[in-house]
Design brief:
264 residues, alpha+beta, Immunoglobulin-like, five-stranded antiparallel beta sheet, Transglutaminase-like, Transglutaminase, Papain-like_cys_pep_sf, Bac_transglu_N
């Protein structure tokens, strides 16, 4: 399947910015599940400082902004050909060792709630057990937009019993690690039925199975990702894979607008 994607992020400020630095992970890479046919990243109102592959292999760019103008726009987009691999991404690659993905982070901390969820999953083959875990997380953490925020961790989402795809991925990752699987967070895009326009990118999780390598699980939709998914970046949690992040100095008030389209 060929997917056409546009992802536009616009920041506006009420006064000139003293200084800001943004990290962009907005360039997908070709791999077992996708081939990037064409892709462009256009930036207005900011200056690109450096581009590099981070420790997880994500193509990363740092851009800075200061003074005039009172706004920054970043538009990424292109065409990606996708393949249905039943969620199998394959062997581990990259600078980060596999054991790093077995360690918890502040967003994937595992305490009593995660422990109870993971320990209740019945023993089975590795892939079946992870699919059962995916269903258990979906049952425990209902998808409710706006119910959490970017800093909500896995234990908090379990306690609330609701969240968004980010929270569901964090809970799955924390529980999979408790069960002994290295696990990681994936940011990307999803072709939705009946709509082209979207207000946010998507997120899911991957667990490493010895015989298969990385295998993907989308808790929000209770499936392993297929040809409707485009992988953008990976990390141990949301903070390490988020498409756009940054810091800002000064007193400028910021307004953010995001517009995403995904179509076949």
């Amino acid at each position: 399947m060929r997917l056409k994607i546009t992802h536009r992020t616009e920041y506006s400020y009420d006064v000139p910015v003293q200084y800001g630095l943004q990290r962009l992970r907005l360039v997908p890479q070709s791999g077992p599940t996708q081939a990037v046919v064409s892709w462009a990243l256009e930036i207005a109102g900011a200056r690109e400082e450096v581009r590099f592959a981070d420790q997880f292999g994500n193509e990363t760019r740092l851009v800075s902004v200061e003074g005039e103008p009172h706004g920054v726009s970043v538009e990424a987009g292109g065409i990606v050909e996708t393949f249905d691999t039943s969620g199998i991404v394959g062997p581990h690659q990259g600078f980060a060792p596999l054991w790093l993905f077995a360690r918890e982070t502040a967003l994937t901390v595992a305490a009593d709630g995660i422990a109870a969820l993971a320990d209740a999953v019945a023993p089975a083959s590795e892939v079946d057990r992870l699919h059962a875990l995916m269903d258990a997380v979906a049952d425990k953490v209902a998808y409710v937009p706006g119910s959490t925020h970017a800093g909500t961790n896995a234990e908090e989402a379990i306690a609330l019993g609701k969240g968004v795809c980010q929270d569901q991925a964090h809970v799955f990752i924390a529980a999979a690690r408790r069960l002994g699987y290295p696990a990681r967070y994936v940011s990307g895009y999803l072709l939705l039925d009946g709509t082209v326009d979207q207000v946010a990118s998507h997120a899911w999780a991957e667990a490493h199975v010895e015989a298969l390598g990385w295998v993907a699980f989308d808790v929000a939709n209770r499936i392993s990702p297929d040809e409707r998914y485009v992988r953008l970046a990976v990390g141990r949690d949301y903070r390490e894979a988020m498409p756009v992040s940054g810091i800002r100095l000064g007193q400028a008030a910021e307004a953010l607008a995001v517009h995403i389209t995904v179509e076949q």
